[in-house]
Amino acid sequence: xxxxxxxxxxxxxxxxxxxxxxxxxxxxxxxxxxxxxxxxxxxxxxxxxxxxxxxxxxxxxxxxxxxxxxxxxxxxxxxxxxxxxxxxxxxxxxxxxxxxxxxxxxxxxxxxxxxxxxxxxxxxxxxxxxxxxxxxxxxxxxxxxxxx
Amino acid sequence: xxxxxxxxxxxxxxxxxxxxxxxxxxxxxxxxxxxxxxxxxxxxxxxxxxxxxxxxxxxxxxxxxxxxxxxxxxxxxxxxxxxxxxxxxxxxxxxxxxxxxxxxxxxxxxxxxxxxxxxxxxxxxxxxxxxxxxxxxxxxxxxxxxxxxxxxxxxxxxxxxxxxxxxxxxxxxxxxxxxxxxxxxxxxxxxxxxxxxxxxxxxxxxxxxxxxxxxxxxxxxxxxxxxxxxxxxxxxxxxxxxxxxxxxxxxxxxxxxxxxxxxxxxxxxxxxxxxxxxxxxxxxxxxxxxxxxxxxxxxxxxxxxxxxxxxxxxxxxxxxxxxxxxxxxxxxxxxxxxxxxxxxxxxxxxxxxxxxxxxxxxxxxxxxxxxxxxxxxxxxxxxxxxxxxxxxxxxxxxxxxxxxxxxxxxxxxxxxxxxxxxxxxxxxxxxxxxxxxxxxxxxxxxxxxxxxxxxxxxxxxxxxxxxxxxxxxxxxxxxxxxxxxxxxxxxxxxxxxxxxxxxxxxxxxxxxxxxxxxxxxxxxxxxxxxxxxxxxxxxxxxxxxxxxxxxxxxxxxxxxxxxxxxxxxxx
Lengths: 148, 571
Description:
The complex is a heterodimer.
Chain A: H1 26-29, H2 35-44, H3 59-65, H4 72-91, H5 124-129, E1 134-135, E2 138-142
Antiparallel strand pairs in A: 1-2
Chain B: H1 6-21, H2 23-26, H3 32-48, E1 51-53, E2 60-69, E3 75-82, H4 103-116, E4 117-128, H5 167-179, E5 183-184, E6 187-188, E7 191-194, E8 204-207, E9 214-222, E10 231-243, E11 247-251, E12 254-258, E13 265-271, H6 278-295, E14 307-317, E15 327-332, H7 335-354, E16 364-369, E17 374-380, E18 390-391, E19 398-399, H8 402-411, H9 416-426, H10 430-438, H11 440-451, H12 456-474, H13 485-496, H14 502-515, H15 519-525, H16 534-547, H17 549-556, H18 563-570
Helix pairs in contact in B: 3-4, 3-7, 4-7, 6-7, 9-10, 11-12, 11-13, 13-14
Function (chain B): Allows the formation of correctly charged Gln-tRNA(Gln) through the transamidation of misacylated Glu-tRNA(Gln) in chloroplasts and mitochondria. The reaction takes place in the presence of glutamine and ATP through an activated gamma-phospho-Glu-tRNA(Gln).
Domain Asn/Gln amidotransferase (chain B): 444-570
Protein name (chain B): Glutamyl-tRNA(Gln) amidotransferase subunit B, chloroplastic/mitochondrial
């Protein structure tokens, strides 16, 4: 799998980068995205054509890894939206990083550690109450062994 | 077939190692009957040659293997179990029967295997850290607590809860990395490893992926003489921090989850594929356990799952640079099961190769079945799992300063390997060295006894002999006995100086072990001083004779049996 230089692209490491394929269907479906995404599109004014692009995601597989079931019509509905998001991240590839020090994390503040001092979380009733199926003292879940 | 007595085991042990060493030459095609019988010997060893451990796994148990060539067709096997003083045998007390096998098939296996193949073994170990709280939240962790009592929104993965790293985890991983001669990454990070399983409510495990905190180290160890002896150095590929998952109890139509363990800090230690036998792998795990206990970063208890080993085993023709197909073995709960599972797996793969079925060895995960003493298929590996790692956005970069690393380095205790080399240089035998350095508390006790001026060899003998036996009988650790190292030194000096006899010394020892007190006090209290003055002794004898004129006459008349009577009166 080819890895982009941008860390953000790791998030989408499912998707293959393919410089030859470009996205051009952005305008028609961008309305369905939250406003901050559209704003970013406008203000940054990055053109999809100038950046390296991502291969469209295999939506059924994406849904499977996220344990989400999608009906065929939903796949049709979501595919262009997901493609939009991927395209947006793909634009990051165009950013010139030649003069930027490589970083392993975006923030550089460093450690925010705590002492090894026990503290008991008091409102355990609320925690247990939020468990869908609970039978003292265990959380009950469906069968998982020999399923895969 | 008889069981050899303890006294003869040493002698016979030698013949066992000799016959194993000569296995290669003995297997030449012309002497086929030899190879058959030696295979019997080998498969016997594969199934029974064990590193046994006490329930506390402090000390290893040893089977001595003895073979004696009766004639060219039969190799008789004898086995004796020698247990050192502080140990409890956990298994296989009965004498294993001679292995009966179809001769032609197995002869081929061993021929091909011993001449042409070698085993490649790598180990992944998870060490549960003995921090008071979990890795990313302040929930206390205590093994065996009521299920689902030590939980909070963070370790339950509830929305909006944010992890904060426990500083002890950093301290402990730096200690472990330095103890294993690793290079530390001064800048590293956490990553999310995605997988769906109910033992991990977040849907991902916080781990380290492409920048582990420690890499490129090694571990030194000494193989016990019973297993051939020798020093080994095994590479450590990487060490990284991650969180443990909860516990799942599977039942017929569902599963029960206990999240107490979810979020408890683990260190994953990946070895280089440097081991070649089950014994080497078991000794590697035993050394890791010693090191984490010396460092005080984990209790290293395998039964509780504080030290878990998954081993990868493959075999390949000698000289071939590529590895064969590797098989992962899980469910290894003791050093002896590591050893036996690996040797079983090697012989299983060798047998498949010898039958032209090398392609039946597939990449899979197998489970060690303690009851049946074999590995069974658990699941096939269908390609690499897609964990979709990405940097954990909720945690900042992990930054170590060189000053911090140096300060941890300076605080490291003397580690098992250093202790062994020091004891060896002092002139102790390897058997003594391995016993004394095995448990840090025993080693400290020994060192303290020496610093009170005690003789080296005598101190070692008392600790490994009567004191270890007492600890075993009373189920006490060396920190729980009442005898202080200083008084042991005193006792040794009193015997060596002739103040008391060795026999009286032993009596005093058991009194001191149980009740404490001082050697001087006990000698005075019981009036046990050994009288060395010949004049004083002469007076006592005169007194006894004059008080027993009748017996004295009988003695002079030839009833020499009365000698014992007089000796008793003098005492």
